[in-house]
Amino acid sequence: MPVLIITFGSFIRKYGTQCSGCSKGIIPLETVRRVRNLVFHLHCFTCFLCNRELATGDHFFLMEDEKLICHTDYYSAATTAIVDNGKFL
Fold first, then answer.
1. Nearest CA to 49 among 34, 61, 36?
2. Where is the chain membrane-spanning (predicted)?
3. Which CATH class is domain 46-83?
């Protein structure tokens, strides 16, 4: 029977947990951030609009497409969306 030898990195990419931000493998002892069923590298846990890294205690929104948006950008975008030519819709 042939023996298959794979590297640790290949094993993690194929069978391990993948980051929801970058889709790369997460090493088992690596510190991560979790939101619902999503797992992120610390450096991938960022606002989709401004790319600011979100920290513990920061308020953010998880959009339907699984993108993270910081509190500031969410309300800024929401305000822009409800105003049309200076009039509230």
1. 61
2. none
3. mainly beta
**Residue 33, beta-bridge partner list:** 40
Q: What is the pTM of this model?
A: 0.73
User: Of the candidates 16, 24, 66, 15, which has an alpha carbon nearest to the alpha carbon of residue 43?
Assistant: 24
- Helices then strands, each counted (H, E), the chain: 2, 6
Handedness of CA 74, 75, 76, 80 (dihedral sign): positive
Residue 9 half-sphere exposure toward CB, CA atoms < 13 A: 1
- Residues in the chain, how many? 89
Tell which residue, 43, 24, 47, 48, has the closest CA to residue 32.
Answer: 43
Say what the pLDDT of residue 79 is: 72
- Which residue bears the tokens 């305000």? 79
Residue 47 tokens, joined: 């606002």
